[in-house]
Amino acid sequence: MSDLRFDNRVVIVTGAGGGLGKAYALFFGARGASVVVNDLGVSRSGDGTSTSAADVVVEEIRKAGGKAVANYNSVEDGDKIVETAMKAFNRVDIIINNAGILRDKSFARMTDADWDLIQAVHVKGSYKVTKAAWDIFKKQKFGRIIMTASAAGVYGNFGQSNYSAAKLALASFSSTLAKEGAKDNIHCNTIAPMAASRIPPLLLTNRHPTITTTITITTTITITTTITITTTPSPPRTESIMPPDVLAALKPEYVAPLVAYLCHETTKENGGLFEVGAGFVAKLRWERSRGAVFKADDTFSPAAVGAKWGEITDFSNPEYPSSVTDTDFLSLLEQAKNLAAN
Ligand code: NAD
Question: Which residues contact 8 (CB under 8 A, 6 or more apart)?
Fold first, then answer.
């Protein structure tokens, strides 16, 4: 297969000032696309703003002979990012919803602000950018969208209840857009990436438990003060933990090929969810047990559920539903009737 190109395509990459977003922006820029490099220039927890992150990436793309413009809006103002693309290039073809931050805390310590900010940046931000381009995509009968989930969203992860809720929301948002967009050649896929960037791979985030330190200060006039400090240290820097060969494989650059493949005009994949990182790409899907059927009468009790728990959780002969219509209620009703007749 000759390498796929993106000439005449306009790509918006959100959060493209660093990490994975930067890798995507450079990748598309080197393959003929015009790139809108969006970045608000915030810290990992969403504080501050800066224009330099986006500017540096634009400069790098242009120096290599590519076409790029910067945008410094928050993804929460997604319409302004799409406006930048329309002003500069007069079209939009591909959106990579990548911008993200973390506010990791155990659920007991989570505040409303930690919860709301994560939903606002990840879920509302992806919604706002995508919504602003949706009619353009429909009119031109072409659009490719990537949502960025996380293994934390798929499997859950200690200290990331806000983030995991937002990340899995994006996967189901994507499944619905895939269904709504298919007739207009709008495809939406989701990735759960893993890369050694500022938002560290999950295998590292599990290694920063809360530490409680007790310091006892005794002064000469025998006053004793005890101070207890509770801190959640930043995750250790990836470089200090990973062996060099693993670090090399975890480069953000090794997530870009899947993202670009999913966004190409010849790619049929739509509505998929992929884990990608360190040279590994795999598709995820729902698996359902064959389940158990109960008589729909007052014999359907908690004890009856318990009695069939083995059947309910038996995955030896699974199904793989991908749509709400993949449940054959007529056949289930028929089975229930037969039970009732026995
Ligand atoms: P990163 O921190 O290196 O880059 C994120 C970029 O997004 C930053 O440059 C930041 O300024 C920008 N940004 C943040 N909030 C923004 C906003 N409101 N509007 C515009 N820009 C904003 O992070 P990364 O590791 O490259 O992660 C990129 C995406 O991948 C995120 O959505 C993250 O949740 C997801 N992810 C990463 C990993 C990983 O292993 N790195 C794992 C799972 C998911």
Answer: 32
Tell me the whole-structure pTM to 2 decimals.
Answer: 0.90
163, 254, 261, 320: which one is catalytic? 163
Rounded to whole angstroms, how far apart are CA atoms 172 and 291?
23
Whole-Å CA distances, 1 to 5, 200, 254, 262:
12, 33, 18, 15
Residues of the chain with pLDDT under 70: 1, 202-241, 340-342
State pLDDT tens for residues 222-253.
556 566 555 544 554 455 567 888 889 999 99
**Distance (Å) from CA 60 to ligand 1 centroid:** 19
Tokens of 256: 């870009």
How far is 268 from 180, CA to CA, in rounded Å? 15
Reading the block at residue 236, the tokens are: 């250790």
Task: Show the tokens assigned to 211.
Answer: 């530490």
Q: Which of 36, 37, 98 to mutate to test the pocket of ligand 1 (most atoms within 8 A of CB)?
A: 98
| Helix/strand/coil for 129 | helix
Helix, strand or coil for residue 39? coil
What counts of helices (H) and strands (E) characterise the chain? Answer: 14, 10
pLDDT digits (tens, 9 = 90+) for 19-38: 999 999 999 999 999 999 99
Which of helix, strand or coil describes residue 35?
strand
Residue nearest to ligand 1 atom 11, measured at CA: 41
Cα(296) to centroid(ligand 1), Å: 48
In the residue annotation, 127 being an active-site residue is answered as no
CA of residue 195 to ligand 1 center, whole Å: 11
Tokens coding 247: 């670090």
Give which of 37, 65, 33, 69 is closest to 53, Cα–Cα. Answer: 37
Interface TM-score (ipTM) > 0.95: yes
